[in-house]
Design a protein that fits this description.
Shape of chain B: extended
Largest sheet of chain B: none
Strand content of chain B: under 5%
Number of strands of chain B: 0
Order of helices and strands of chain B: HHHHHHHH
Largest interface: A-B, 114 and 124 residues
Strand content of chain A: under 5%
Oligomer: heterodimer
Distance between the termini of chain B: 9 Å
Distance between the termini of chain A: 17 Å
Structural class of chain A: mainly alpha
Order of helices and strands of chain A: HHHHHHH
Structural class of chain B: mainly alpha
Number of helices of chain B: 8
Radius of gyration of chain A: 28 Å
Shape of chain A: extended
Number of strands of chain A: 0
Chain lengths: 219, 220
C-alpha cells in the first residue's frame, strides 16, 4: 500500500509539473482532482472539528439527560440552515441573517484583538529599545538599529498618510518610507522564493529518492 | 425587515463580542464563549453552501458541455471520496489519512513549488535596477536569498578571506540577512501593520454601526 501511495503521489506530481511544458490533459486531471479533494477535506474537517463538538455533542447531551443547555444549539443550527435559502431566488435574502451574525462576531472580535496585538504591541516593540538605551545596556549597533526602526516606521506611515499633500518635507519623508517599503518587499520576495524553492527541492527529492528508489524494491 | 434585522443582528453580536472581551466576569466570559461557539456552528453551513454552489457551477459546465467539461467529474469524484471516507469515519481514519498523505498533500506541495518557476520569470521582469527603489528591492532580495542558503556564507567567507577582516566578519551573508529582516524590513512591516490595523478597526466600527452595508448585497 505504501508503494502504491508513492506511485500515485509521483504520478500526480509529474502531472502537475507537466504544466511547465504547456497546459495539457494530465495537468488538468490533477488540477480538478486537487480542487475536489481540497473542498472535500475542508468539509470533513469543519464537520468533525466544528459541527460535531460544538453542535451535535451538546445537542445529544439533551437526550442522555446530561444537560438541557444543548437545546440552545438549535438556534445556531437553524441560523446556519438559512444559508441554504441562497438556493431559492425568492428567499435568497434570508442568507443575510447568518452572514450578518458571522460578520458581527468577526468585527467584534477584531477590534480589541487588532488594537492589542497589532497597534499596542507593535508600537511598544518599536519604542521599547529606547528604555534600554537610557539604561546604557545597548551596543552602538543596537542603538543605531533602534533609531532606524523608529525612522522606518514613521516614514512608512507618512507614505500611507493621505490627509496631507505630499509636498516639501512630507514628500522627502514619504520617499524615505518608499525606500523602507522596497526593502520590506525585497525581503518578502526573497523569503517567498526560497520557500518555493525549498518545496521544489522536497518534491524533486521525493521523485529521485522515494519514487525512483521504489524501482529497486520492485525489481 | 429584510435589511433591518440583519443590521440589528450584526450590531448586537458585534457589540456583545466587543464588550465581553473587556470583562473578566464569568457570565461575560460564558456569553463570549457561547457566541464564539455559535459562530463555529454556523461556519460549516457556509462551507457546505459554497460547495453546493461549486457543484452547481460544474453541473452547468457539464450540461452545456463547455470547454474541458469532462474534468468537472473529477471535482465531484474528489469531493465524494473525501466526504464518503471522512464524514462517517473521521479524519483519523487510515484510508482518509492515506488519501491526504498520498494524493492531496503531494499535489498541494507541487502546486506551490510550481510557483518557484513562475516567480523566477517574474523576478527577471521586476528586478531590473532602473531606479533607486527597484535597486533596493533587487539588492535586498538577493541578500535575503543568499543569506537563506549555506552557499551564501560560503561565497562571503571566500571573498572576505582575501581581506584582513576574515575572522571579524565571518558568515556575513546570513548575519546581513538577519539584520535586514530584523530592522529595515520589520520597520516597513510595522508601518504597514499599523496602517492596516487602523483600517480594520475603522471598518469594523462602520460595519457594527451599520454605516457600511455592502455585505448585505443588492436588492430590497
Amino acid at each position: 500500500m505504501e508503494l502504491f501511495g508513492i506511485w500515485i503521489a509521483a504520478f500526480l506530481t509529474l502531472c502537475i509539473y507537466s504544466f511547465l511544458y504547456k497546459d495539457n490533459p494530465f495537468y488538468r486531471f490533477a488540477e480538478y482532482l486537487f480542487v475536489g479533494m481540497t473542498v472535500g477535506y475542508g468539509i470533513v474537517l469543519s464537520y468533525h472539528q466544528g459541527f460535531i463538538p460544538f453542535a451535535w455533542e451538546p445537542f445529544m447531551d439533551v437526550f442522555t439527560g446530561e444537560s438541557l443547555f444543548g437545546l440552545i444549539k438549535l438556534i445556531p443550527i437553524g441560523i446556519g440552515l438559512l444559508f441554504f435559502s441562497g438556493l431559492s431566488s425568492r428567499h435568497t435574502w434570508l442568507i443575510r441573517f447568518p452572514s450578518a451574525i458571522l460578520i458581527g462576531v468577526g468585527c467584534g472580535l477584531a477590534i480589541p484583538n487588532v488594537l492589542r496585538a497589532n497597534i499596542f504591541e507593535q508600537t511598544r516593540g518599536t519604542i521599547e529599545p529606547f528604555a534600554a538605551i537610557n539604561a546604557g545596556t545597548l551596543s552602538g549597533m543596537e542603538i543605531f538599529s533602534a533609531i532606524l526602526m523608529v525612522i522606518g516606521v514613521i516614514c512608512t506611515l507618512t507614505y500611507f498618510f493621505f490627509s496631507v499633500e505630499h509636498r516639501g518635507p512630507v514628500k522627502w519623508v514619504s520617499k524615505i518610507g518608499i525606500a523602507f517599503l522596497m526593502i520590506g518587499f525585497g525581503s518578502a520576495f526573497g523569503n517567498t522564493v526560497m520557500g518555493r524553492v525549498a518545496l521544489l527541492i522536497q518534491r524533486v527529492d521525493f521523485l529521485i529518492n522515494d519514487w525512483l528508489g521504489s524501482f529497486v524494491a520492485l525489481f | 425587515m429584510k435589511r433591518q434585522i440583519p443590521l440589528i443582528l450584526c450590531f448586537l453580536f458585534g457589540v456583545v463580542m466587543l464588550l465581553t472581551q473587556f470583562s473578566p466576569h464569568s457570565l461575560s466570559q460564558g456569553i463570549y464563549e457561547e457566541v464564539l461557539n455559535w459562530a463555529r456552528i454556523i461556519t460549516p453551513f457556509a462551507l457546505v453552501f459554497s460547495t453546493i454552489t461549486l457543484l452547481q457551477t460544474h453541473i452547468t459546465r457539464i450540461r452545456r458541455q463547455t470547454e474541458h467539461w469532462q474534468y468537472s467529474f473529477l471535482v465531484f469524484g474528489g469531493i465524494a471520496i473525501m466526504v464518503v471516507v471522512g464524514i462517517p469515519f473521521g479524519p483519523q481514519n487510515p484510508v482518509f489519512e492515506w488519501l491526504f498523505n498520498n494524493v492531496q498533500l503531494p499535489m498541494d506541495a507541487t502546486m506551490f513549488s510550481l510557483l518557484a518557476f513562475f516567480i523566477a520569470s517574474a523576478a527577471y521582469r521586476a528586478f531590473r535596477a532602473r531606479n533607486l527603489e527597484a535597486s533596493l528591492l533587487l539588492i535586498t532580495a538577493v541578500i535575503v536569498m543568499l543569506g537563506n542558503v549555506p552557499v551564501g556564507d560560503l561565497i562571503w567567507n571566500k571573498l572576505i578571506s582575501l581581506t584582513p577582516w576574515a575572522d571579524t566578519y565571518a558568515n556575513g551573508s546570513s548575519l546581513m540577512k538577519q539584520w535586514i529582516l530584523d530592522n529595515p524590513n520589520l520597520s516597513a512591516r510595522r508601518g504597514i501593520i499599523l496602517g492596516v490595523s487602523l483600517g480594520v478597526i475603522s471598518q469594523s466600527i462602520r460595519i457594527i454601526l451599520g454605516i457600511e452595508r455592502s455585505y448585505l448585497g443588492g436588492g430590497d
